[in-house]
DNA sequence: GTGACATACCTATGTATCTTAGGTATAAAT
DNA sequence: ATTTATACCTAAGATACATAGGTATGTCAC
């Protein structure tokens, strides 16, 4: 049984945001950074992350640079201009969503 | 193509919250009230709502009373004590989720 | 030196939670 | 008379994950 997370639907936005604020990163690094930043609340699974990165790259929202560290490979991803536009768009949707949730769960009384 | 919403995963919590704050309601009424409260941002589809109501009832989180209005039927749902516990539990998860998202997208600088 | 764990990449399958798209029927509005 | 709103329902399809595997390199404790 898969245990769905509340972050469902937000992972792509989170990746775009992270690459914008923190600069180029590689996949594994992203999983760790997110875990750190959220004090372990959000652990992006590799099974979710890698397909997201590949999709964003295919959409030209990210570019990749492959680097060798010893005998291992790292694929560094960087956000493009198109990706930045996409990020802003998704951020706007997220803001509205958050505001609406606030309204539903913590309504400001409207007299 | 189905257009996924950011509210995915929150609909059950929203229904529980609504039945707690606004008292007993019937399905169609819930869809309208949510649309109203969110200024149209969130339109819970009947195809999503009715299965949720049936599931919550099966879990004893809701009770039903059927009423006749003219020749039509209304099924009024009310939250149970177990449902209230579930609501509180889901609310706590939601709060943490929202706080984490805030942290990711609007980080308070940590010196 | 070997066993465990971390790093670093990947994909295939299963599944929860929806959206879409239908259906039935009554009531109100134009 | 036709359209729209009310009020219930379910089946099929889509999405975005989680789960669960796989490969390989590097590090650390014992």
Radius of gyration of chain A: 16 Å
Q: Which range does the strand content of chain A fall in?
A: 15-25%
The SSE order of chain A reads HEHHEEH
Number of strands of chain A: 3
Give a written overview of the molecule.
The structure is a homodimer of 111-residue chains. With 111 residues, chain A is α+β, with helices and mostly antiparallel strands. Chain A has a single domain, classed as Winged helix-like DNA-binding domain superfamily/Winged helix DNA-binding domain (Arc Repressor Mutant, subunit A). In chain A, 55% of the residues lie in helices and 16% in strands. Chain A contains 4 helices and 3 strands; from the N terminus they run αβααββα. A 3-stranded antiparallel β-sheet of chain A has the order 1-3-2. In chain A, β2 and β3 form a beta hairpin. In chain A, α1 crosses α4. Chain A is globular, with a radius of gyration of 16 Å. The N and C termini of chain A lie far apart (46 Å). The structure holds a DNA duplex (30 and 30 nucleotides).
Brief description of this entry?
With 111 residues, chain A is of the alpha+beta class. In chain A, 55% of the residues lie in helices and 16% in strands. Chain A has 4 helices and 3 strands.
Key terms for this structure?
homodimer; 111 residues; alpha+beta; Arc Repressor Mutant, subunit A; three-stranded antiparallel β-sheet; 4 helices; 16% strand; globular; DNA-binding
């Amino acid at each position: 049984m898969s245990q769905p997370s509340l972050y469902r639907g937000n992972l792509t936005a989170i990746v775009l945001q992270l690459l914008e604020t923190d600069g180029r990163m590689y996949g594994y690094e992203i999983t760790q950074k997110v875990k750190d930043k959220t004090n372990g609340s959000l652990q992006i699974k590799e099974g979710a992350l890698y397909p997201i990165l590949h999709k964003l790259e295919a959409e030209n929202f990210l570019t990749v640079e492959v680097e060798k560290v010893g005998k291992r490979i790292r694929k560094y991803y960087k956000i493009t201009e198109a990706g930045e536009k996409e990020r802003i768009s998704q951020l706007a949707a997220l803001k509205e969503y958050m505001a609406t949730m606030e309204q539903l769960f913590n309504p400001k009384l409207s007299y």
